[in-house]
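Practice problem 4.
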């Protein structure tokens, strides 16, 4: 299937967010859509080849760099997770305005802090399917910290959380009624896997949920074989749930 790739941009709190839209060249009917949200200090760049592979299965896909990351506007030293959530809501609204996107079949994939973003977005927008990859958990206090402040204590901060179930993202996922897949790294060196599993525990209303553990993998899926496992499971999930 031939895919068209188009650079896109939209405003979020008066700053420009930049990304890429992938869609099949020939479209007869409305298609399901997926938006990818990256982790801290990352950008859309690593998701471009992943998005293109998914699009070849007949799904419209959008990647983006949240503000303060990649080519998007905004300062990494000033922006916070709530600003990323605003980016997520604005990305969703921009995406579903395209007439070839089926608004009843929208999926979101969030990695690390991106999982916090998609979980909160799912409480305010219609989302049929979610994938949380190595999902981070942020307390309310952590969400008042800038991205740069977060990175200074990242190695300790997540391990010090004692009230994970009371965090905004875990409270949000408790209301999610769609399909939920958690893809965890067995040897995550940033966020304890047991803490990540609380997303599934709290998602009591989910229509369908599953967990995939990538053996020996670290937080960033540094090895090609780990990334390939994530991609295959991601495609399989969205094909089955959208």
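Answer key:
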């Amino acid at each position: 299937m031939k895919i068209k790739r188009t650079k896109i941009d939209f405003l979020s709190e008066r700053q420009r967010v930049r990304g890429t839209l992938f869609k099949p060249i020939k479209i007869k009917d409305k298609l399901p859509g997926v938006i990818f949200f990256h982790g801290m200090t990352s950008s859309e760049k690593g998701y471009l080849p992943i998005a293109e592979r998914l699009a070849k299965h007949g799904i419209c896909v959008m990647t983006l760099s949240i503000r303060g990351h990649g080519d998007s506007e905004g300062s990494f030293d000033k922006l916070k997770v709530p600003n990323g959530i605003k980016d997520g809501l604005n990305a969703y609204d921009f995406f579903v305005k395209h007439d070839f996107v089926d608004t009843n079949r929208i999926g979101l994939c969030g990695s690390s802090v991106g999982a916090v973003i998609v979980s909160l977005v799912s409480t305010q927008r219609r989302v049929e399917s979610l994938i949380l990859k190595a999902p981070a958990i942020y307390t309310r206090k952590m969400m008042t910290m800038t991205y740069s402040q977060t990175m200074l204590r990242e190695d300790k901060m997540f391990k010090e959380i004692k009230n994970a179930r009371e965090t905004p993202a875990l409270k949000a996922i408790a209301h999610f009624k769609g399909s939920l897949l958690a893809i965890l790294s067995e040897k995550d060196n940033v966020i304890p896997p047991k803490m990540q599993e609380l997303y599934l525990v709290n998602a009591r209303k989910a229509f369908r949920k599953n967990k995939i553990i990538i053996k020996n993998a670290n937080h960033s899926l540094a090895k090609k074989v780990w990334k390939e496992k994530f991609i295959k499971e991601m495609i399989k999930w969205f094909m089955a749930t959208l």
